[in-house]
Specification:
alpha/beta; 8 strands
Length: 235
């Protein structure tokens, strides 16, 4: 299922490229890749991305692009020279937007195309948040619809919570990528996440990539924390 031998991607949620690069060195080969998000990219931009990329790890550029189709397609084209391993758009942007994003990604030169992923529902949200927005679907059904639309658009997978892994794996088959944030080792603080699971549980249910941030980056020794998670996964 997974493109990466080690499914753990460490979320480097910092605006500092120097700090992100140091964390990348600290975790080293204990993780399969790194995630750089909106906070980092708004502060450090392409130059900061390039600095972290020089550490030699695959990077998931987590920007959750969401706009009209033409604008998102243009944004994807602008990001292709950075050669992120994974790039995402927000599935709530709709079918046409996701198709435009895929078409733009397909313009990448050979070997430079990122895996394109649709974000379903943020792991900081739950059923009560959906209801406040006027959405009467259950969380699972809502994520399911967005994931089906993502597959229809030709994207390779979705970001989902651990609680939807089994459903989406059954619905969309073994090759559809499931990237799961909100992963917390047993006993870790869940922070602002509401739909969480341990790394081993999520991996065993069928997650392809486990996004883990604060349990690694906020530890006194980030490298040791990453190695402990890898050991728990039998890596």
């Amino acid at each position: 299922m997974s493109t990466f031998e080690n499914p753990v991607f460490c979320a480097l949620d910092t605006p500092s490229p120097d700090k992100a690069a140091k964390l990348a060195r600290d975790v080293g080969a204990a993780v399969g890749g790194l995630k750089l998000g909106l906070e980092f990219f708004m502060a450090a931009g392409p130059q900061g991305f390039a600095q972290v990329a020089r550490e030699g790890r695959p990077i998931f550029l987590d920007l959750k692009l969401h706009d009209i189709p033409n604008t998102v397609a243009g944004a994807v084209r602008s990001l292709l020279p950075l050669k992120p391993a994974i790039l995402n758009v927000h599935a709530q942007g709709g079918l046409a937007m996701m198709k435009a994003a895929k078409a733009a990604a397909d313009e990448a030169p050979e070997g430079g195309r990122p895996v394109m992923i649709g974000v379903t529902m943020m792991t900081s949200l739950d059923q009560s948040d959906l209801e406040r927005q006027g959405n009467r679907l259950t969380t699972t059904d809502y994520v399911r619809r967005l994931a089906e639309q993502t597959a229809e658009a030709g994207l390779e997978g979705v970001v989902c919570s651990a609680l939807e892994i089994e459903t989406l794996r059954a619905d969309l088959g073994p090759d559809f990528k499931l990237i799961v944030p909100g992963i917390r080792p047993a006993g870790a603080d869940i922070g602002d996440q509401k739909r969480v699971m341990t790394p081993t549980e999520a991996r065993d249910l069928g997650a392809d990539i486990l996004v883990i941030g604060r349990p690694i980056t906020a530890a006194d020794d980030a490298g040791a924390a990453a190695r402990a998670i890898a050991a728990d996964l039998g890596l």
